[in-house]
Amino acid sequence: MGFLTSYRQNKKILFCSILAFFVSPFVEARVFSFENESFAPYLSVLGGSPSTQHQPYSWQSTSGFTGDRFDLIYGGEFGFYLRGGSMGMKLGALVQKFDPVQGAIGRNAAGLALFSVDSEGLSYGPHFQLDYQFAKTPQYHWMILVGGGIQFAKINNSYSMTTAGQALVGGQTSLNEAYKTQYNFATLGIGTEFFLTRTTTMSFVLGYHYMLEPQWKYVTTGENFAGPNSDGQEVRLENGALKNINWSHIFLQLSFQFYTKTLR
Question: How far is CA 177 from the centre of its chain?
């Protein structure tokens, strides 16, 4: 009889222990509220449509283009987000890349093809951003964002010259050139952030990335439409004017914030 009583008691203890094991996470689960959150690693993806088009590989000898062009820029950002009250601050690393151009054709004023070109561009660097949150609820708010940073950028062009084009580049049948620059940029946007699940939120931002006028320099040595060039030399057109390549653009950004208890 004593053995049976002991067995029932042990069985009851085991059952309660198992029940406590499965129930306790729900009892202790955090009830998410922006008012209680202050620190979050974040990850973003973004994309936009710059007005760059043919700038990276255009020359004064080529007055028209057909085929591919730079019409999409995309990238990602990761870093850390701090918030307090109605203000937030992000510090992260932003990487942007052009959708590569393949087989664009450059033509002269008479419509004669001078070359076909493949081109690609990449930029990366730190990004700092502040936001002001309004129209708030514990799990949702709208925000205005301002920011800026530095980007280190590089462009690579690979040309295949036609017979007509070879006369403009010292008789070369093909040539490769690369430019680099370091530029400052500013961002402005409006967005919303909302609770997604557990301690994760999602945000959407519509904004503008403004590229301050950069100065491009060669990282290759050779000869192109502007004549001989060398590493570190400014990129200029045939008439000596600085070559302009600017990819300011409107962008749409999707972000995930992963809030932690670290600074609660």
Answer: 24
List of residues 6+ apart from 18 with CB closer than 8 A? none
- What pLDDT sits at residue 69? 87
Q: What is the pLDDT of residue 51?
A: 85
Ranges of the chain with pLDDT below 70: 1-30, 262-264
Rg (CA), the chain: 28
CA–CA separation, 261 and 38 (whole Å): 8
Which residues are 41's β-sheet partners? 80
Q: Report the pLDDT value the prediction gives residue 85, as an integer from 0 to 100.
A: 85
Give the pLDDT of residue 30: 63
Query: What is the CB neighbour count within 10 angstroms for residue 124?
Result: 16
Token pair of 54 as six digits:
């043919």
Integer Cα distance of 182 and 201 in angstroms: 33
Helix (H, G, I), strand (E, B) or coil at 26: helix
What global pTM score does this model have?
0.83
E strands, 19-173, in order: 39-48, 64-66, 73-84, 87-98, 101-107, 113-137, 140-161
SS3 labels along 186-238: EEEEEEEEEEEECCEEEEEEEEEEEECCCCCEECCCEEECCEEECCCCECECC
